[in-house]
Specification:
binds adenosine monophosphate, single chain, 42% helix, seven-stranded mixed beta sheet, binds manganese (II) ion, TIM Barrel, alpha/beta
């Protein structure tokens, strides 16, 4: 069964958005749990892109370290032609419906990496070798892995440069993908008994009206939470996210979106407290667990 949290909310340090090497993070689940313990995190969710492969190992390591753990996943979704990310929390790792949804997305991701390879090759880069290297590693293949290959092979100065020159929108190796819509994505999370949380709303380059429509549709589809506190979030973005959470009755979630140690603007387990009047998502999980 998926983990459940019992009793009143005893957590002060919570991180409900973090990646391991099963997607585009660099730490193993065990290393992530050890870092969480060192930082005093009391409740952790592992939320790799479109896979739960690291959750069992993370759950074991967290149990050994005395950290409460939620099985999680960050699901890639499409809303009005725009990629949005939906975090599933307290997921049943044995849900066949969710497993099949995630396998479908990973297959789309693999096809996208192969197309990126073809596009890079058309520009004289070793695209086929890059795609093969990315697809050979276990876990979810992402464009960040392609970016790392481009840097290692001297075709970009750093990962950000790789997106700016090759992979980002409008660049030679940009590839659009038809990810599942938000209703399908929220339904897959619901089929696994989880809570759906709309991730990092400030990163979608949407107008205020666009964000309201996205949050309204997400809530109507059964979404329960919104990430309102992330490290480095500008005060204006945090205020807008808090207003959206209140308006659409979404619980607040907070996470670092940790990928790699040593990057000061995404530290595991460090972020502002939830704003006043926002119900923490883990308290809603409590209520659901008690039902
Ligand atoms: P994908 O999920 O395949 O689209 O890969 C995108 C991943 O690359 C994201 O999850 C981010 O972790 C990472 N990333 C790092 N820098 C950038 C950037 N400049 N633009 C887009 N994604 C980036
Ligand atoms: Mn990522
Ligand atoms: Mn994301
Ligand atoms: Mn993430």
């Amino acid at each position: 069964m998926a983990s459940m949290i019992a009793g009143p909310q005893p957590f002060e340090r919570i991180d409900l958005h973090a990646h391991s090497h099963w997607s585009d993070g660099t730490l193993s689940p065990e290393e992530l749990a050890a870092l969480a313990a060192a930082r005093g995190v009391q409740l952790l969710a592992l939320t790799d892109h479109d896979t739960m492969a690291g959750c069992e190992a993370a759950a074991r390591a967290c149990a050994a370290a005395g950290i409460a753990f939620l099985h999680g996943c960050e699901l890639t979704s499409l809303w009005r032609g725009r990629e949005v990310h939906i975090v599933g929390l307290r997921l049943d790792p044995h849900s066949a419906t969710l497993a099949s949804h995630l396998a479908g997305v990973r297959a789309q991701r693999a096809a996208r990496i192969r197309t990126i390879g073809v596009k890079l090759a058309a520009r004289g880069l070793p695209g086929e070798a890059i795609a093969a290297a990315v697809l050979a590693r276990p876990g979810t293949p992402t464009r960040l892995h392609v970016a790392r290959e481009l840097v290692q092979r001297g075709h970009a100065a750093d990962e950000d440069d790789a997106f700016k020159r090759w992979l980002g929108q409008g660049q030679p190796a940009a590839v659009a993908a038809a990810w599942p819509g938000i209703a399908d994505t929220v339904a897959a999370i619901g089929a696994a008994g989880g809570a759906a949380v709309l991730a990092h709303p400030h990163r979608y380059k949407l107008s205020a009206g666009g964000l309201r429509e996205l949050c309204g549709e997400f809530r109507a589809a059964g979404g329960l939470g919104l990430e309102v506190s992330l490290p480095g979030m500008a005060q204006g973005d945090a205020d807008r996210a808090a207003a959206l959470a209140r308006r659409y009755d979404l619980a607040g979630s907070c996470g670092s979106d940790f990928h790699v140690p040593g990057i000061p603007w995404r530290p595991l387990g460090r972020f502002a407290k939830l704003p006043d009047g926002i119900k923490p998502i883990h308290e809603r999980l409590n209520a659901r667990a008690a039902e």
